[in-house]
Structure formats: structure tokens, C-alpha cells
Design a protein that fits this description.
mainly alpha, about 130 residues, Globin-like, binds protoporphyrin IX containing FE, 7 helices, about 70% helix
Length: about 130
């Protein structure tokens, strides 16, 4: 059976094309401080970041991504002062944009799959973020 997450991404691409800009717009609205952290970042790098975020959302077993997740969370915390809660906000923004792009064709199956996947990936990311007293 095809993963509902993949089906939803295909539908969103058919209906809305490239959703990168819409994701950043939603994210900066929903996550105070995130726009400031990214104001120096050029569109190419921003696009590459979203490609990686979308790729991770399509993964259903994060064990294989463990080294990569360690690298990204360390890099984001040490080099850009990204805060732990910013990951879940970003994933929620992607969820919102994909859902709105699909509009009336969004199903309960998509919703359930997204809630589960976003929760799992948020946990993987947030648990790697070091709490510094
Ligand atoms: C699943 C979560 C995330 C992934 C996989 C991810 C991935 C990436 C990647 C691959 C790049 C580098 C692109 C390149 O140099 O070619 C990047 C850059 C960056 N990311 Fe993320 N990112 C994530 C979450 C976040 C969050 C929550 C923030 C908070 C605002 C953030 C802020 C940044 C910034 C500021 C850069 C700029 C790097 C630079 O100046 O070169 N990222 N990200």
C-alpha cells in the first residue's frame, strides 16, 4: 500500500507546484524569532533546507537517519542558535501548507498519517537538541 504521506505530497505538488515559499511564509508567521534567524539565508540554501525537511517527513524509520539527525541538530544549535521548539513549529507549518494545498481532497487518512509522522520526527529532532542551563 502506498504511504499516505507520499500520496499527499504528490497531490500537493500537482495542485500547488513548489510549496517552499508558502512553507516559509507560514513558518515565519507561526514561529516567533525564526524569520530573524533566517534573514541572512539566500533562497538556494532555503530551498535545499526544505528539500531535506520534506525528505525526512517521507521517511518512516528514523533509525537509518540517526547520524544525519545528530549532525543537523548539532549544526543548527551551535552555528545558528536554533531553539528546540522551532523544529516542531517548522514541521507543523509544512503540515498546514500541504493540507491547504490539497484542500477538499485532504482525507482523514492523510491527517492521521501526518499527525503521527510529524510527532515522531519532532521527537527525533527535539530529543537531540541539548538543553543548556
Ligand atoms: C528537520 C529540520 C531541519 C532540517 C533537516 C534542516 C536542514 C538544513 C540544511 C540541509 C541546511 C543547509 C543548506 C545548505 O547549506 O545547502 C540548513 C540551513 C539552515 N537552517 Fe535548517 N533545517 C531544519 C530546521 C531548521 C529550523 C527549525 C531552523 C530555524 C529557523 C533552521 C534554520 C537554518 C538556518 C538559519 C540555516 C542557514 C545556514 C547558513 O547560513 O548557511 N533550520 N538547514
Amino acid at each position: 500500500m502506498t504511504d499516505p504521506i507520499l500520496t499527499s505530497f504528490e497531490l500537493a505538488a500537482d495542485k500547488a507546484g513548489d510549496v517552499t515559499d508558502a512553507i516559509y511564509e507560514q513558518y515565519f508567521k507561526d514561529c516567533p524569532g525564526s524569520e530573524k534567524l533566517m534573514e541572512h539565508v539566500d533562497p538556494g540554501v532555503k530551498g535545499k533546507m526544505i528539500q531535506e525537511v520534506l525528505r525526512l517527513i517521507m521517511v518512516d524509520d528514523y533509525q537509518e537517519e540517526s547520524d544525519y539527525l545528530n549532525f543537523e541538530v548539532n549544526y543548527h544549535q551551535n552555528s545558528f542558535s536554533v531553539e528546540g521548539h522551532m523544529y516542531a513549529n517548522l514541521l507543523r507549518a509544512v503540515h498546514t501548507v500541504v493540507k491547504h494545498s490539497i484542500a477538499s481532497e485532504w482525507t482523514e487518512e492523510f491527517e492521521n498519517a501526518w499527525v503521527k509522522r510529524i510527532e515522531a520526527l519532532s521527537h527525533e529532532l527535539t530529543s537531540r537538541h541539548k538543553i543548556i542551563a
